[in-house]
Amino acid sequence: MGASSIAVAEAREQAKALDREDPLAFTRAEFNVPTTAQIASTRLAEDSATPENDDDNKSVYLCGNSLGLQPKRTGTRINQYLRTWATQGVQGHFKPLADSPLPTWLDADAKAAELIAPIVGASESEVAVMQTLTTNLHLLMSAFYHPDINGRHKIILESRAFPSDHFAVESQLRHHGLSPETSMITVQSPFSQDNVLSTYDIMSVISTNAADTALILLPGIQYYTGQLLDIPVITAFAHKHGIFVIWDLAHAVGNVPLSLHAWDVDAAAWCTYKYLNGGPGCIGGLFVHERNSLVTKAITDPHPEEGYTNRLAGWWGNDKSTRFAMANKFHPVGGAAGFQLSNPSVLDITSLSASLEVFQLAGGVKELRKKSLKLTGFLEELLNGMSEEDRAIFRIITPSDPDQRGAQLSILLEEGLLGGVMTELEKRSVIVDERKPDVIRVAPAPLYNTFEECVAFVEAFSEALAAARKTKV
Ligand SMILES: Cc1ncc(COP(=O)(O)O)c(C=O)c1O
């Protein structure tokens, strides 16, 4: 690849064959893939739907790690939701409509939990579709982080955690009157220049701080490097030391198979706008293992609050049977739903559920992962096969072991090239994202990306590198 047009032609033929053999190729038609004209346009399109059968004019969108593409059925379902609201008003909360595929609004959260449960490997009662990622991390910490300055008070997180996670942890510590200097421990790799963390790196920090650590917050997939951590092994090790672990699954959910219940995960939270294609800022989700969300005392007990974990509460977490009784004694429903606060945005849930229908069509994340392994492996092979000249100025920092990554490859560019490369890719209607100072993240999503798009990316990337080299700052 790179300089040789023969190599490009061969790779394209190979990609075409792989696309033809791909049993999941059909799900691409479920998505609005922006055309090159739309990507370049500075005007609001008349109609969001892209023309059918014009694959040649599509942009190359490899940015599902940041914002997933819009499923076509999202518009259909949102319109049905709008029509319900327009014609039923408040009755939409509880009146089923015989020919509507949508649940009543009162049941929308439970229905969405049913759809998300297999994606994270949990029972329906262990998941709730609610709030947003950072809020959910705070809610989980408010319930499960009980620091004791003379005992367990530390929180362990990675040194290059996504800023929001870092802020959440720091502010939780301060909220409890603690200082990040003494109570926050960050993990970094002493060996990897790119801070790819080995399980050993993490375990040794846990061991060193085992006696006074209360909580660990780690990402399932690290946003910058794309590394997939060993969730079950790290969780088990933390449990051995009596530590509660919360996983941030922003980049893992819908991307790699998860078995949160079987892995004995304590709690986790995620967003839905990346691989789950819910739409920008769409409602998030959380998982609470069933052992952590029990409600063991009846509301008639003199002290019902002793029968469940205290948490920041709101009426939507209250037992459904007494939620509308308007009494002021909080009694949570058992399970993750008991961590809800407000009535959720049905607009958001409708959008998310539309995309989750497509996951069902695809046969679930396990099927998608089979394709994803091939797709990302193919992209990696193409990148590694680029010319010596190109290879000299970039490096893939995502682990080469497919078991240690999801769809995303993070490409570290030589200093000073990022701006130029991004501009050149955009000129060629190739959409990826950048993480400063020097990384571009490229994520072929198995629901809508093709092998041919991997070739198109590498071709454009080679041209972008050549152009950026000339204008390097
Ligand atoms: C790993 C990670 N954590 C946290 C967040 C913050 O998410 P939100 O803005 O939905 O709270 C993001 C957003 O992209 C993320 O990638």
Automatic annotation (TrEMBL):
What pathway is this protein a component of? Answer: Cofactor biosynthesis; NAD(+) biosynthesis; quinolinate from L-kynurenine: step 2/3; Amino-acid degradation; L-kynurenine degradation; L-alanine and anthranilate from L-kynurenine: step 1/1
Report keywords, A-Z. Answer: Cytoplasm, Hydrolase, Pyridine nucleotide biosynthesis, Pyridoxal phosphate, Transferase
Instruction: Show the catalytic activity.
Output: 3-hydroxy-L-kynurenine + H2O = 3-hydroxyanthranilate + L-alanine + H(+); L-kynurenine + H2O = anthranilate + L-alanine + H(+)
Q: What is its main location?
A: cytoplasm
**Where do the annotations place pyridoxal 5'-phosphate binding?**
L133, T134, F162, P163, S164, D165, D248, H251, Y273, W315, N343
Q: What class of enzyme is it?
A: hydrolase
A family per Pfam: KYNU_C
N6-(pyridoxal phosphate)lysine occurs at which residues?
K274
Q: Which residues form the Aminotransferase class V domain?
A: 107-290
Signal sequence region: none
Could you tell me the Gene Ontology terms of the biological process aspect for this record?
'de novo' NAD+ biosynthetic process from L-tryptophan; anthranilate metabolic process; L-kynurenine catabolic process; L-tryptophan catabolic process to kynurenine; quinolinate biosynthetic process
> Record keywords: Glycoprotein included?
no
Give the EC number(s) under which this enzyme is classified.
Answer: 3.7.1.3
Provide the function of this protein: Catalyzes the cleavage of L-kynurenine (L-Kyn) and L-3-hydroxykynurenine (L-3OHKyn) into anthranilic acid (AA) and 3-hydroxyanthranilic acid (3-OHAA), respectively.
Complex and partners: Homodimer.
Q: Which family does it belong to?
A: Belongs to the kynureninase family.
Q: What is this protein called?
A: Kynureninase
Q: Which organism is the protein's source?
A: Cercophora scortea
Q: Output the lineage of the source organism.
A: Eukaryota, Fungi, Dikarya, Ascomycota, Pezizomycotina
Q: Which gene encodes it?
A: BNA5
